[in-house]
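Q: I'm a student working through a structural biology exercise. My instructor gave each of us a protein and asked us to get a predicted structure, then write a short paragraph describing it. Mine is Polyphosphate kinase. I'm not confident about reading structure output yet, so if you can add a plain explanation after the tokens, that would really help. Here is the sequence I was given:
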Amino acid sequence: MTDTATDTADSASAPGPDRSAPADEVALPDNRYANREMSWLDFNARVLALAEDRRQPLLERMKFLSIFASNLDEFYMVRVAGLKRRQEMGLAVRSSDGLSPRERLALVADRSKELSVRHARCFLTDIEPALAAEGIKIIRWRDLTTAQQKELSEYFHAKIFPVLTPLAVDPAHPFPYISGLSLNLAVLVRDPGSDVDRFARIKVPNNVRRFVVVTQSVDLSQYLPIEDLIAAHLSALFPGMEVVEHHLFRVTRNTDFEVDEDRDEDLLQALERELVRRRFGPPVRLEVGEDIDSAVLALLVSEIDVQPEDVLQLPGLLDLTALWQVYDVDRPALKERPFVPATHPRFAEGETPKSVFATLREGDVLVHHPYESFATSVQRFIEQAAADPNVLAIKQTLYRTSGDSPIVDALVDAAEAGKQVVVLVEIKARFDEQANIKWARALERAGCHVVYGLVGLKTHCKTSLVVRQEGGSLRRYAHIGTGNYHPKTARLYEDFGLFTADERICSDLTDLFNVLTGYSRQTDYRTLLVAPHRLRSGLLERVEREIIHAKQGRPAHIQIKTNHLVDEALIDALYRASAAGVNVQLMVRTFCTIKAQVPGLSDNISVRSILGRFLEHSRVFYFANDGDPEYWIGSADMMHRNLDRRVEVLAQVTGPNTDQLRETLDMAFAPDTASWELQGDGRWIRAGGSKAVDYQEVLLSQLASRSE
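A: Happy to help. First, here is the predicted structure for Polyphosphate kinase. I'll explain a few features afterward.
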């Protein structure tokens, strides 16, 4: 749900806001930025609210519990870890909201504990009983019949027991290393006739499924947590000893790291070394059961070396990310209705696919995922290019892709067919580093020219360029998207993609690939806004243009749809726009440090967040421009990491395709659309009224109508 929304660099370490103000304007107040971490926790609270919403299908509610848990894991592994590192280094520099790392950590600890307990109780007291009423039961060992216990004991001894390794803790056995996000049993055992308890740790294996299927039928599905199965057989692991008690615990570690790109060494090798180090990052959170023995807890806190404020005592099951396994149960009545993405009508004649190249010669095409198919648009574009004998070259950026990537397969086919294939694989994409290293090597073996990215920058833009021989000349075709070349997330993430044969855009992309692969230092482009040099300034110029229109009495309007908004320079520009009378409407999914509806500061700024079946992921920028409106789409969020430390691209959408963007933005910002709106006091409240419209469902309905 977060799309790795955890930038570790503080605003204080990046170019700061322009605090100067024109002579005829009042300077902006120092307290104009909200706390970044709290804004993220507010976002995850909205995810939790979807799990608590009984109007949602039951298994979808459970899915949101899993998403909440994985979101929070990543938040701790990167964002909280980064704050802890700065605190430990004695860096007292304050962020844009005026707080030190220590003060921010204190806020995070209190709020995350509150949300974590609420999350655990939502499953324990609401969703788990509701699932049981539907015949989907997570049961305990004591609930099994004798026959079931016998069958599962045989399974344990055959499949689980051989891989378990109980580790004692005593003068001859130091406390073992606890890997991040692993489930572990803390076990106290005792020699018969002794009153001395001894501690041992058992790691729950992570290469087997968390829930053992006990019963699977049309109307009854029973699951046993694997830790229950292990706990029921502790005597087999400690023969001759008395098992006194056991408790489950889980550790989260710092997985944030930086590769020293200034060293004279191969970037790929340096990254592989850092990936090994990531496994041994310092702990940042300890999760334990609500009923844990105080002495055992004290031992864990001491040996794992966490602070008391980093301990979460939770009721019920730990690690609810595993609920995705239960979501796979075949119970369609308890899930959202399935849908089949439509093929964009420009890419097919009835059921017959059209040549993407012939279509683009007739004009640009804008696709909207997941409503319109990734497979019959983006994937087909690359596959047709790979198979077309007239295609001479394919150039592609890859930030994230799937384990079975048809895009990579098509690029391999193209290289093996003798085409020139250039692929920039961003091996520094967080949590996808290992997978991207694998793809890079596979592409190299196939004969592709592989580039690993630029020193000091991540290449985050989503771009493809195809060069085709047509008659006596070459023609280029391009795709620029807001989402990754990832066929699986393309069914879950909402994104736009622009296909074009426009010579100016294709020339810009040609120049950009020369920057990415060679020594070109080009910073200005004909039509594109490209970070890190011109994207922020290009947006600021357009905001300033709206301010001028407003001051001259003309209508002025800005709409921005983004995942994150924390860049102070842009926020300050939007505050000035509000003061000038510009209507500023913002749709922000996650991090949001602008303050809305604050008298005298942001009277004309409204901020909303839409969470639903799909992850709102596209970045769209609209400027009214006194009747000559501009629409831009791209990969960049309004954060320092995107604008200063990444290669990002925004492309302008023109012509009839702007109608689709206009319709989408109108629905997203309509008063009756179900959403969350940011209040002047910092609270997010539900909006849309009692008959609120789910705009994702409206888009799905329109998809169904077009398909019919």
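A: Here are two points you could use in your paragraph. Residues 101-133 form the longest helix (33 residues). Residues 4-21 have pLDDT under 50 and may be disordered. It's a good idea to check both against the output above yourself.
Q: Great, thank you!
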